[in-house]
Amino acid sequence: MAMQKRRIILDTSSIVFALSNGIDIFGAVRDQKPGYVPILSHGIVGELKGIRSKGGKYSGYAGAAIGILERSDAEMMPDNSPVDDWIYEEAVNNGYAVCTNDIRLKKRLKARRVTVFSIARSGTIR
Length: 126
Hints:
This protein is α/β, with parallel strands linked by helices. The chain has a single domain (6-117), classed as Rossmann fold, CATH 3.40.50.1010. The protein is built from six helices and five strands. The protein has helices spanning 12-20, 25-32, 42-54, 59-71, 83-94, 103-110; strands at residues 6-10, 36-41, 75-77, 97-99, 116-117. It has a five-stranded parallel β-sheet, sandwiched between helices. Strand 4 (97-99), helix 6 and strand 5 (116-117) form a beta-alpha-beta unit. Helix 1 (12-20) crosses helix 4 (59-71) and helix 3 (42-54) packs antiparallel against helix 4.
């Protein structure tokens, strides 16, 4: 019997943080969280494009993330609300896990007993 795939939302902070530390977050999810399928929204991609276009410290990482996304197995989902609100609603309403390094979002999700992971500089998803 095939294992049912669970979904994990990767937010902008976790993607950029991982790449800024030389970590392929999509590979890390595949290797460390077997059975999870990464999902993102169009809003998350929009945030990455905004970071890329502003220049600055993280623009190259955001650009690299967009390139990696095009080759990844991540599911893209539409959204109609601000990114953090979309993440919260999807996680709470559908039982999705979330990988974020955003402390405020992490607290908000944990208060609703959502499974929350973060990525460490070592590449460990915990």
